[in-house]
Amino acid sequence: MTRRTLRTYAGSGFSRTILAAAVVAMTCASAHAQSPTEIAPDPAVEVIKVQGNVWMIAGAGANIAVQAGSQGIVVVDTGAGAMSDKVLAAIRTISSRPIRYIINTSDAPQHVGGNAALGTPRAATGLDRGATPNVIAQENVYTRMTRLGPDGKPAYPSDAWPTDGYYAPRRGMIFNGEAIDIIHMPKAFSDGDSIVYFRGSNVLVTGDIYTTTNLPMVNRANGGTYAGVLAALRSMLDIAVADDLAEGGTYLIPGHGRISDAADLVEYHDMAYIIRDRVKKLADGGKSLQEVKAARPVLGWEGRYNQPGWTVDMFLEAIYPEFAKAPAPPARRGGR
Amino acid sequence: MKAIVGSGFSRTKMACFAAVVAAALLAWQKPVRAQLDFDIVGFWDQPALGTVLSAGSGVAAIFGFEEDSTERADGPDLVDYLGIPLNAEARARALAYDGALLGVPEHACMRHPSTYSFWGPARLRIESDLDPNLDVVDYKVSGTFRRADRTIWMDGRPHPSKYAPHTWAGFTTGEWRGSTLVTNTTHIKWGWIRRNGTPSSDQATVTTYYTRNENVLTVTWIVNDPLYLTEPYIKSVDFIAAPRGATPSTFGVEPPDRGGNLFAECFSREEIARPDQHYVPHYLPGENPFVGETAKRLGIPVEATLGGAETALPEYKDKLKK
Q1: With an 8 Å Cβ cutoff, are A259 and B165 in contact?
Q2: Which residue has the higher pLDDT, B268 or A199?
Q3: Which residues of B, range 132-151, sit inside 8 Å of A by Cβ?
Q4: How many domains does chain A have?
């Protein structure tokens, strides 16, 4: 609602009290939506070969993708900061070559937490001096990680920052003989999401837009929207191709959880689609957030995806504002 | 031996001694013998008029559709969950199911998962791989609809990590218990336990019992689904030995020009008009038009067709009569 619109409403006799109440209600609804907290790391990390030149390191917070070859290593996301030693050890079981690129799919703590540790020359090469890895992320990730907080300090120390922010819809590169697409997914989990597609290996890294552990995560405070999540899931469906009889083919490394294929993505997309339609119908019928919660539009998946850091209630609080009807326009008074 | 003979040990006694030793050896080897006696390797067909028992015609004659006939061809009625121990979450998903889902490309080619596959049309070809000592390393069970072929690992290997991919067949290990091969399947994809949208989750596991009685192989499987079932769901099906491999051609593996590949190959394509590319046909809560249809046909309350553990029990009939 712009300032001009506010003035127009006020000038047309729209009660200031009602207007103030509406603004407060909308603000509260928005502020009430909490940001997702990712599931805790496992005590140990696992290295699993996905296919082609790509491995997944699991258990270090968010999943980490590693592409390795003669030119070196690309790491997509770096896990929780506390797990960096284990992550580095795991990477060294895959390749002894230097880390040349780090790509962050978002600025969520478990996706950038290891940036500083993995981004040093020693981590990258095993030597104290040498090439520092390029850290690539969508520019909104860069902006958030460098923004000064109330204490005058940035959200992350400078050695964790991306060094190479991109703002175009897509960044392409070839490394280890393989084309790699880094594609911006606007306003999905956040406003800085990237998915990374290793074309030769046929592996898609999804970030937190797709997980096998959570309901779709929407960080409204960071520009995320449910509509954007659905659009991103569809974009991923357009990239992923199932092999014979709906199994295998393109493999996905989700933000959290197990390695997946297109059929798993279809299941997750269908859930998101059905929940959207359920919530929309309730909201269109004038149901309040509390009434929507009581109607249990997530029934069918509650037990599977309800997590302490991203509960069904938190999810509904985050997505409800996208469906809630805007305040009714003011009744026009009679003409002069 | 000469010393024994020379010491007066009679031939009769020696024969008895040898027999006892042989019997002891046989007894000692019994576990191995049990496995050999009750092996399941071979061709197995569903009992049907046309293939094994006698001549016949029609679909039933070809694929052995007599047993559990309500599951065959077009499948069971929609919104018929009678006897299935569903919980509220599973019921909500089942009621959202729209059969048009099978017409969208993303779903058209999905295989029958291990939570269901033996209940579908199947002609089994069971093979084994042996190690240098002729011990079974694995059985390969193929021939279920859309070929979610199942490998049963017999070498004691562990199940994969929780981060490993799930498949339609899942990951299976097995062991012989007497004359029955008992297997445990994990890592199964989201799927179904009945072909009318009754769902199974990716947390489901399946215990399967392969029991052979001469030329009949009875497969009993128990689905445990902590997400969707309040109790284990148990099904069984019989197969008859088809030693000629007759099964006109081993179900579903004929070359395309012979028309036999319908169940083994699939090319997803547009089959219904869709409002958008990734359209998901489904019913919103309270809008499934098939609720009550089966109940009306069978003359039972709608509540009974919505399933639940209670509806599997004989006493439930008494409750309905009240």
Answers
A1: yes
A2: A199
A3: 146-148
A4: 1
